[in-house]
Amino acid sequence: MERGENKMALIKPIRTTKKLDANGGEEEALLMSPTSRTFHEPNYNLYVLAILGWKVPINVDAMKAEIQSKLLKHPRFSSLQVIDESDDSRNMKWIPTTVNLDDHVIVPDLKPNPNNMDTDKLVEDYISNLSAVSIDMSKPLWDLHILNVKTSHAEATCIFRLHHSIGDGVSLVSLLLSCFRKSSDPTSLPTLLVSSSSSSKGKSNLSNNRGSIWSLMWQYLVKLWSCISLLFNTVVDVPMFVATALFLKDSQSPFTVPQGFKSSTRLRFVYRTVSLDDIKFIKNLTNSTVNDVILGITQAALSRYVHRKYEIEGKRKFSPQKMRCRASVVMNLRPLLGVQAVAEMIEKNTVVIQGNCFGIVIIPLSISQFDNPLDYVRKAKTTMDRKKHSLESRCTFYLSQLLTKLFGFKGAAALAPRALSHTTLFFSNVLGPLEEVSWSRHPLAFIAPTCYGQSTGIMVHGCSYAKNLTFAVAVDEGIIPDPNQLGDDFVESFRLIKEAALSKF
């Protein structure tokens, strides 16, 4: 689905100014990875937006100085993406160039209408308009928009916009956070929660049971059954993904893209913040994970919106049990480097973004009205536990690589967008810092990462920060005419699930 992005036919060879290395020689151009190259196909031209709210007005010069001293040390922020005309396969290369920050840091003069001082709407419209345009290929594909306008969410707002070919969400968040420092200790880097390996736990359990041969036999049987279950789930999931990419579509709903629908040229972005401590409380009560709770809240919010729409339209015979509603979920396939490692690599001028490395998993969504709101979380836990015990994400990643080798970039770019367009929702979430952070003495209020260019009518991102979690919802305004109502449904669904959890005590 095109959203005003440049066609590949419009991407011409660019004459560049080469950067010099430490020895005075020209830096060598690097070949772009196949996955990153795929993001330049017209039907898969994605941009990442990081919406950052601040507790104080922004000092533009201080922000520029931080970018100059940190981000520009990374080659992907100071390199052009150019097609290699000497290569018949039209591969792209990273060509180092000199960056003029004034071309990338944009400070618009936003003035509210005297008759309407709704600054929230002013900022929302500005971000929405960004989704209708692409970044000029004659410069590195990123920019920073600084809006020194007070809203109900923050004293000022920044929008970091990057082309998805620069890296995936996990690597970009780690890189961005390497520019921040703890508000309580300006010399310390932020802390990210990294999942610990369960291998040590398994070894300790095994050693504790060595005295019993029956315990050992039982453990081996459990592992054997786990392997059989893993194989079975994978054999079921991968063909289902291929079927979805080819022909299997979700049922028609207020969220799905109608057949023959011409997308609007821009998206709407809304974000709502809830308490992370309350989400952890729900997680502990339901014996689930934070991801399960986030997905449960998402299911509850979508259910509220759908049922209200059908009631308004008078469709009383609507049966959600017969609705096929699914989400395409992005799964990171590599371990987190961590903010400390990224910061050290930047200081040493080494490459820290490893491109895009993720798989896509398709999960069913429950669009129902449950008497007990906690059932949304329990449904999400059952679904995610099942998907965790499958190799679907890795198989979809390798399938994309295989299609690239067999049919080129256009073949690979046809798989994921078709799978996305045949599902209802695009869903992802990332971990933010555990404590409050600042960038050049600007304390951060919230982080709301999102995307545009996807072929679904709705995308939901969740991002944690300190004691809060922000839902960022991107919708096609031609499909969802009231995005703020949908955002409010997330808050109301969270409240109802929280009250149901509290009632257990």
TrEMBL record:
Keyword line? Acyltransferase, Endoplasmic reticulum, Transferase
Instruction: Kindly name one Pfam family recorded for this protein.
Output: WS_DGAT_cat
The UniProt entry lists the main location of this chain as membrane
Q: Which reaction does it catalyse?
A: a long chain fatty alcohol + a fatty acyl-CoA = a long-chain alcohol wax ester + CoA; an acyl-CoA + a 1,2-diacyl-sn-glycerol = a triacyl-sn-glycerol + CoA
* Annotated pathway: Lipid metabolism; Glycerolipid metabolism; triacylglycerol biosynthesis
Residue limits of the O-acyltransferase WSD1-like N-terminal domain?
60-294
Transmembrane helix as a keyword?
Answer: no
Domain O-acyltransferase WSD1 C-terminal, which positions? 355-498
InterPro entries, alphabetized: CAT-like_dom_sf, O-acyltransferase_WSD1-like, O-acyltransferase_WSD1_C, O-acyltransferase_WSD1_N
Similarity comment text for this entry? In the N-terminal section; belongs to the long-chain O-acyltransferase family.
Name of the protein described by the UniProt record:
O-acyltransferase WSD1-like isoform X1
Q: Which organism is it from?
A: Nicotiana tabacum
Lineage, uppermost ranks: Eukaryota, Viridiplantae, Streptophyta, Embryophyta, Tracheophyta
